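Recap for those who missed Tuesday's class. We walked through two folding examples back to back. For each one, the amino acid string is listed first and its predicted structure tokens come directly after. Nothing is annotated here on purpose, so try labeling regions yourself before you check the end of the notes.
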Amino acid sequence: MMALTYRSYLKLDQLLSIQEAQSVPPEHDEILFVVIHQAYELWFKQLLHEFDKIKGDFSNNELYGAIHTMKRCRTIMKTLVGQVDILETMTPMSFTSFRDRLDTASGFQSAQFREFEYQLGYKRADMLDYHDKDSTQYQKLVQRLNESSVIDHFYDFLAHRGVTIPVELRDKAVSESTQPNEKIQDGLYELYRDDPSVGILLELMTDFDEGFQEWRYRHVKLVERTIGNKKGTGGSLGVDFLKRSLFLSVFPDLWAIRHRL
């Protein structure tokens, strides 16, 4: 049996062999485009993993476990925002030089990103229409659509902390998106006021939410400066579609009480 090495443990032979340009001859910036988007997919995988843990932390009233992992998720989100800076070193003309080679491929088709949205409570069943029903990715999306979101588990945490969760939230279908609720907001305000340790968690959640909104904004502006008002690759909906979700909050109740703090 061969000894485990850094290279074999990380499967570097496989990993470093999959950055392939479609342009012939290869356009210099296409490799950058591939590497960045593969890195995004790896970070999406990690965020899905971390938020699954947070769901358990919330339901089990594990405050410090949730704080630790939410801090990690916030830091990963900052990294995603920072990667936009690297992509913006690619000019519109350099992207145009290989854009046609992308054919029907589009970031709009990222199943992991849709999973992430579903996991966070932004659930749009119509997004399933853009994925092959016979694929493993489609089945994962259906599972995420029909399972409790991070917010649903957050309600468990709030209940452990004495907040009364309205019946309409407990009875809400898990396939429906998160909606703000005044009674939840009242409970959050009281926790901020009376329990500073919970307040640390709530601020980390707000930090993450702000970072996610920043990433959406940076992504929209990147697409806009690169392709303007053209359709996205693969005929995807482009800038106008991206703008619709630009400032959607993951934790809307936390934003709704800022004026009261």
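Example two. Treat it independently of the first, because the proteins are unrelated.
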Amino acid sequence: MPDIKDVYPLYLAGKPEIPNTDLEVRDIYTGGVASCVPLASAEMIDAAIAACAAAADECASIPAYQRKAVLRHCVDRFKERSSELARVLCVEAGKPIRDSEGEVTRLIDTFEIAAEESTRLNGEVIEMQITQRADGYRGMTKRVPVGVCSFITPFNFPLNLVAHKVAPAIACGCPFVLKPSDKTPIGALIIGEILAETDLPPGAFSVLPSRVEDAGALVTDERIRYLSFTGSDRVGKELITRAGLKRVTLELGGNAACVIDESGDVETAIERIVFGGYYQSGQSCVSVQRVLAHSSVYDRLRDGLVAEVSGLKSGNPGDRDTFIGPMIDEQSAKRIESWINEAVAGGARLLAGGRRAGSMLEATLLEDVPVGMTINQEEVFGPVVLLSRFDEFDRSIEIVNESRFGLQAGVFTDSVTNMHKAWDQLRVGGVVINDVPSFRVDHMPYGGVKDSGLGREGVRSAIEEMTEVRLMVVRDKR
């Protein structure tokens, strides 16, 4: 695979700059320094916002075919550099190479979807003559870009979560400033490098790794008309109190549940739960965390999960047969280890895993975790699944809804009644029938309720968040 460069520039108003090499990006598995990137100062962030504001009108006037051409160029270049992008993910995020390659595929998909949606920013004709006083009036709407956007992205999907903000912004004509995670900035900087090859106007984009204390303007600056943040609910709640009068989308994670009723396909559920609970070491907002199984299928499901989870290989994410790679850092692994130990001390039964070595945490399966335990209430964001049983389907819905989170839920059932009951009553942003809540296709509306966030992503939904309806009313000449 291609080597990672010693230094990657940041992008200020579309231009590469290396003002310093202050941020060391580490190989998550070995702990060694893999590369260095610059950290943007508060002054650079202000300059980026000013450049976006100056470019906003020009960006809004770019014809659809030109926006599509920019996105198509990105698609072609991502394909050409797919091995490099996967290698970067594997190193800076510790993501197993097969998962890394899968994320590159999703990056490509997201930009391809955005290229198509860039030509579909349509409005509607409104029938105005619903009352006599509107006789002779016509109405129509169109969608227009909101203006300068601010994007803040996390470490766990360093390519595709950037894509879900950047690609829709280009598709609808919004300039933007992107702050990628300081743990995984390289993938975003490569996207910036590819964008710099296009004919986007000067100032249309900036990609600026920075310290949190220098990035406050990305939240508070009044020139920014839209803020999209993906990260913890604690930080998201703080940001929305500081954002002021601008649109805000928050994707804040969850502790996703998966329900298997008495008619559910247990073998399929086992296979999908192993994937949904442990892929990329459980570091996903919709990783399966809680599994609720009907008593009639519980033992079979538990035994199957124990056998499969115990056989998952942990180790070097560069090895193609590795399923569980390292956590993003040792601190995260220690946090989860302490939650596991707390649950076991409180009466939970450890069925598999539970051991930690540095930033490596074994795939862990726990049974009958008491309701009040931290690992049951909070987002684990690691390779841990909790098992419990229920006797009545209505009770499983109540248990899922007791969580303060509500991103997605999965339900394995052959019952049409239970399927619709889950869709009607589960207080989540998305219900996935006969699969895990971890399932996502990049064009579908995606987002949560309660403490899981505000607004929706998915390319078309994100474009709607980044545009606003403008009405025109025409009075016929008399």
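Answers for example two:
The first helix runs from residue 42 to 60.
The chain has two domains: 10-252+453-471, 257-441.
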